[in-house]
Design goal:
Chain A is of the alpha+beta class and 446 residues long. Chain A is built from 12 helices and 20 strands. Chain A has a single domain, classed as Anthranilate synthase. In chain A, helix 1 runs antiparallel to helix 7 and helix 3 crosses helix 10. Chain B is α/β, with parallel strands linked by helices and 196 residues long. Classes of the chains: A alpha+beta (446), B alpha/beta (196). Chains A and B meet through helix 9 and helix 11 of A and helix 1, strand 6 and strand 7 of B.
Amino acid sequence: MTFSQSPSLKIRKIITQLSKFLQEIFGENLCLFFQHGETKKWTYPDHHHFLVTESLPQTLQKSIPTDWTDFHFLAKKDKKKWDNYNQSKFLKKMNKQTLRHTFFLAPYQGVEEDKQVSSEPYFFEDFSYAIKIRLKNDKIKCTVSGPKNNQNLLKYLRKKIRAILNNQEKKNLETHKWPLFQWKISSNLASSLKTLKNELIAGNCYLANFTQTLFFQNELFPSLELFLTRWFEKQTQFGVYFQNKPYGLASFSPERFLLTSNNYILSQPIKGTHLIEENEPLKKSIAKLWKNKKEIYENTMITDLIRNDFNSFCSPNSVKVYKPFEIFKSGKLLQMQTTVVGKKPKHIGWGKVFSYLLPGGSVTGTPKKNVCQFIRTQEEHARGFYTGVAGIIDAKGNINSCLLIRSLFQSPRGVYAGVGAGITTLSNIKKETLEFKNKLKSFLDA
Amino acid sequence: MTLLIIDHHDSFVLNLANWFQYYYKKQTIVLSYSDLPDHFNKIKKKINGVVFSPGPGLPEHYVRSLNFYGQIPADIPILGVCLGHQLLLNYWGATLEKILKVPCHGVQISHRQDIKPRFFPSTKLDGPVVFFNSWVVKSNDNVFKHSFDSLWSRHGYCLMAEHKFRPQVTVQFHPESFASPAGHSILKMFLKAVHK
């Protein structure tokens, strides 16, 4: 059994060389979307106390990586700057049925007023070139596609990529040192959590994901090479990167937002985080996370919230829960996730689906409307892209996307990152502050 | 032949609605409490059952729902869930109290019914159910002397109740949750009364 197997030096070299080569050709019109599969996940022993389905629709099952990793590179030659949109234009674009090789990025937007506060745009970009690499057992499968009207470039790309894959380029792999990020949890955290707990005790909300946004110096946004070094080191479930000035994203997200296959849809909200010291999680670390009632309660509420969001458009009785409270490892953190699946009626477009699902349940809370209002009034800075969603639409029109947590963003606002935790009446301020720190450390510290 | 679900803007209402849309073969409509007409007679459909959904806050924040409830003919089956449970009891005079220990949003309790319902077909209702609430009605509240029977109590709180003279059943837990395997038999029990 391979466990969180790090790709060999050879693979790192290939992916890095390929990325650099594509950057030379396409400049800033390049975006990377990586997805790493975990072979080992732990199934909650008491799941028979819950209404669950025993299997996933096959078409979805096949789309979730287990012992393979997918590297998607999307690029375009024709236009320098990417288009950006407001929410309604973005949703309209997403509704088109013929989308292929598309990258999208949606900022967090909870209530109407967020539009005015957060000036971060929605991105939606059709790419003409797509390179997909699937790595399985250290074996590589690669597809390169591009527009028919530029056969010369496509031929050249294929030739060069073949050379890189065959490792004929003799350069050594340069590793890049992660810079020092200086961060401090804002002193307002304790007082905000207290206000929030009063809301919870009054029954105005039941669970709220409370966050902080931290700003950094501009030069701290990682270069492509630095991002790659870091992602190979961390092996988070998702890795997303682009830098198209003045915007940029370097994501080490562990959380899947929406995966689709034909008309089946799947989401995997995470609630429950536990820091481990050991490389291979010990049984007692797994048991500790499951024994933490606060995390199980939170996960239960978020699962019902995602079911509710799915039920706003899914076919009757198609929304099911699969493997609740499943644990997997992302970097040094154990994460607890639940899978929710559903089937969307054919006539409903993806834009409509996103309008029901955004903002994500696990980064807001229940009831969503009240919590979003609370976030607006209590969080010091607008979240911007933090807790938004980034994803791709592949060659078959299927979506894969992640929630933008554990990510660095670049925009006219500056370079920033966010951190948060689910707050319930059972929250202990000391423990939540520690969770903030552990999550920040997991992607910001050297 | 319509089942009416009154939506109190919870984030779980559509789970309830979707369940009924699937199992109730006739029409199910969801109406926001803020869009309720000022009189029941203004609803132009033949209503066969009403569900008062969960929601944040307290019954007193939902004057329209309380008013509407008061006008529903006595023979129409009604189900109250969480806030809906509190709303019906509160209409008949019950006092809401904060749960003394910490509120239990997401806690599972195994359902063991103390008394069988009178107006609803008896079904086996044992199994886990989940709670998402901060407020409760105590089982020694006066409402249980004159208007309702408490069917299930725990730690002095009423977790399920039935009207003494009308086909109305209320549950403090969330029967529509994936964490309430026993909840489905309660929803089915209510639906049988609606079909009658």
